[in-house]
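Fe2OG dioxygenase domain-containing protein
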Amino acid sequence: MAPTIDPPQTVEWQGKKVPVWSMQTIDYALLLSQDPGEVDKVLKACLEDGYFYLDLQGLDGRRMLNDQQETLKLMHRFFEAPVEAKNEFGLISSHLGYEPVGSRTGAFPGAGTKDGYEMLKVSRDEIQMGSPKVPAVIKNSGDLEVLENTIGSCNTVTKVILSALSTGMNLTGAARYENTHRNDRPSTTTLSMMHYLPSSVTGNKKIGHQKHTDISSLTLLFSEQWGLQIRPPGTCGALEMGFVAPKPGCAFVHVGDSLRFASGMKMQSCIHRVVPFNPTEDRYSIAYFLRAEDDTMFVDSEGRYVTAGQWHDEKFKAFTDPPLWQAMAPRSMILGGMQEAGEDDPQGEPEFLSAPVAVKEGMQEIALQA
């Protein structure tokens, strides 16, 4: 049964009113204690929605929030460096290295756009081995410690969620999700740091991040700025993408394809994209993609038996394919087999609002700092 969603707030964006969808908020401290009520709550969010806020403001979560802030400082130093320094190694592999702006399809494939962000990806396996391939501009003891701390915190937080979901699904022994996400086994788990550039730099042909579902089992996402859009699943009346509001002290959590497949398609994989809410600003986000061990087997949405490593490689290639090739690929590639209704990609060049916008709830208008 599709979830019941209250009428959303709306925001003026690109000349029309766009929904601002709500999310359940999960308390990390209660989840860490395996509180039965919170376990049921997070399981319901993953089965019905595929996304939720994770409240990290308690004692056990504040370390993660501190690591997030230190990572933001590192990102500013890195992305302000000359492109030659950032691109010292290039993209070493699909989950490790630097990607310049315009490497993938953008938020509006109908308008022929490329993406509007640059990204640095640091592999958890590389950090764990103690010899990470990162550009010299951040390869110093202080910055490496920041990366180690952040990856360690993200790994702990996502494993707590994964354990709660195993418990909620009544899984035992080898069937528990944690047993395909062991720290000592190779995986493409990675920390991705993204910098979305202002439109004055990128122009109208390099915009945002295309609509997709994540490859990962779980995505732990931090962004203090607007721009993330989601499409609620099922037949809930979500005929267009809608924004989700950043929530102080909280991370966004998305279910990815791998966990959806591992659950026998019971969990929802979150359809989302990133667009320039305020095209004049630099936007920063941090995403930790917890992925299953490379040799983990599951049945994908096309009915194929594939490994987690194979799924990662195939979908990453699809991300970098031109829109025409993406359109010819199975829907399981970009959207993980998730169903959607409605069309929200403009066919021409988007005309972005440069002025501050407002969210409306009923007759009350609340000013936002764009």
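thats it. The chain has a mean pLDDT of 86. The radius of gyration is 19 Å. bye
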